[in-house]
Specification:
Order of helices and strands: HEEEHHHHHHEEEHEHEHHEEHHHH
Radius of gyration: 25 Å
Helix content: 40-55%
Structural class: mainly alpha
Oligomer: single chain
Number of strands: 10
């Protein structure tokens, strides 16, 4: 998953911990790498004068580096414009990595390959002659990211955040393993490409011989792509997964659900829903908020779309701190594991699963909470209605589920009054299971002692432990809110 600004948004968090160098840009003496980046961008055709670049990189009290306005910005001011040749994507890298053989690389694989080969050594600058000054501004490690924990646990390492894996909610754990599968698939493709094209990097033989080092270096490259790439229209279809890029300067911006947000100006390709006329596009133009002026010296953030904390944690390694001890403003809980057990533990389970799979309703079951409502997803309601119908009929005949088919076809509102009561009782059972598990896990986290991570310099450890507590709080509070509304007889 990648950053899709505004309607497609994902990004980094405005992290409330001063030691988060692991996922923020590395800290250096007075803007050394920022100055080198601007000098390089100027050679790429970017205007970096005082009237053209209205933001600057500065250290924040709580989130490493951030982007701050250099002057008063009236609504919709052009903050900065990055030329297309300064972006790192499948089109700008194409000449470096011929894709005729073997299987062509995806954008994620090609960008991560370039970073992998040109990773800076220690605190030194990247030696890449093409994007070195930009690569040198990227994070130097991702020790606090949960994917790093998974990779290290696979190699037998028990340090860092590995001990936290056992405290994750089941749905988060499942999503994290899916992310790990994506990582492994991309790594295998890159290894195959380099094996077939070893001339690409004289360093590759050494990388290949050192399996652990190779994995660590590629993990660094892949996480930079997964956490920092943004949507950028390059292909005829707007849904093409290769429509993404790394973008200099934007990398310094933090995420916050509140505060002033910058937005990209729509390109002609976006407006006309077509591939750009020029193969590499026309670059990015970022604007200040449309409805408010931003005062000089104000940090300006990236904007997010609606994404559950589960996704933010797995993909980017943080959560939104929008939960309070008593109230929440929004939340989502994946109940896949609980519902699967409920359905499959009954003798009709295999039959119900086959029907739901055939009709496209198996899985992706969630509970939602917002200021206006708390409810199960339509997919969950649909699955529970079928489950309760088969339980009440004590049958697994296909002709017995026609009333359910009529409901999903819109021919009737419900199966029966009895079925409505039954599936809502099942929903309460699901909520109770989530509440019980969440309460036990929160109690367990209170008594959790680290494996020495804090003592070994992992200052992010308490912060990540609190993020995991937030995930469990969300599960607890969302399930409790849905249960309460169900008991009150609210129609969903």
């Amino acid at each position: 998953m990648h950053i899709f600004l505004q309607s497609h948004a994902h990004a980094r968090n405005n992290i409330n911990v001063s030691t988060m160098a692991s996922i923020s840009n590395v800290q250096l003496p007075p803007n050394y790498r920022w100055s080198k980046l601007l000098a390089w961008l100027k050679t790429q055709g970017m205007k970096t004068g005082a009237d053209d670049l209205l933001v600057e990189c500065k250290e924040t009290p709580t989130a490493g580096n951030g982007l701050f306005t250099r002057t008063l910005c009236t609504p919709s001011s052009l903050l900065f414009a990055v030329p297309p040749q300064a972006l790192m994507n499948i089109r700008t890298l194409k000449s470096f990595y011929p894709t005729s053989r073997p299987t062509p690389l995806t954008a994620t694989q090609m960008i991560s390959l370039h970073l992998y080969i040109n990773r800076p050594h220690g605190c030194e600058d990247s030696l890449d002659p093409h994007y070195g000054p930009y690569i040198s501004t990227l994070p130097r490690e991702f020790d606090s990211h949960p994917l790093t924990w998974i990779v290290r646990s696979k190699s037998g390492t028990e340090s860092g955040g590995v001990s936290l894996l056992g405290y994750l909610p089941p749905s988060v754990h499942a999503s994290l393993f899916k992310l790990h599968d994506r990582f492994c698939q991309d790594r295998a493709a890159v290894r195959a490409y380099l094996t077939a094209n070893s001339y690409i990097s004289p360093k590759y033989d050494t990388h290949l011989a050192n399996i652990d080092g190779s994995t660590s270096n590629y993990l660094w490259a892949w996480l930079n792509v997964n956490t920092r790439c943004i949507y950028y229209r390059l292909k005829a279809s707007k849904e093409d997964p290769d429509n993404l890029t790394l973008c200099p300067i934007l990398d310094f911006a933090n995420h916050s659900p509140n505060g002033p947000h910058m937005t990209p100006a729509p390109s002609e390709a976006d407006i006309w829903d077509t591939a750009p006329v020029r193969a590499i596009g026309k670059g990015f133009r970022f604007l200040s908020p449309v409805d408010v002026s931003v005062q000089e010296g104000t940090e300006i953030f990236l904007a997010y779309g609606a994404h559950p904390n589960r996704t933010l944690f797995v993909e980017y390694g943080f959560v939104n701190k929008s939960l309070g001890e008593v109230e929440i403003t929004d939340g989502e809980v994946d109940v896949q594991g609980v519902v699967e057990s409920l359905i499959l533990d009954h003798k009709s389970g295999v039959f119900v699963k086959s029907i739901l799979e055939d009709e496209g309703y198996w899985g992706d079951w969630t509970l939602y909470f917002s200021e206006e409502s708390a409810q199960p997803s339509w997919r969950l309601i649909t699955a529970l209605r079928l489950h309760c119908l088969c339980v009440s009929n004590n049958t697994i005949r296909r002709n017995a589920i026609q009333p359910w088919r009529d409901v999903i076809a819109g021919k009737r509102e419900m199966i029966s009054d009895g079925n409505e009561l039954a599936w809502k009782e099942s929903l309460i059972t699901i909520c109770d299971a989530i509440i019980t598990k969440a309460q036990a896990s929160l109690d367990s986290l209170k008594s959790f002692k680290s494996d020495g991570a804090e003592e070994y310099g992992h200052g992010w450890f308490p912060w990540m432990r609190e993020n995991i507590r937030t995930l469990w709080k969300e599960e607890l509070l969302v399930a409790a809110a849905v249960k309460q509304r169900t008991l009150r007889g609210v129609d969903f």
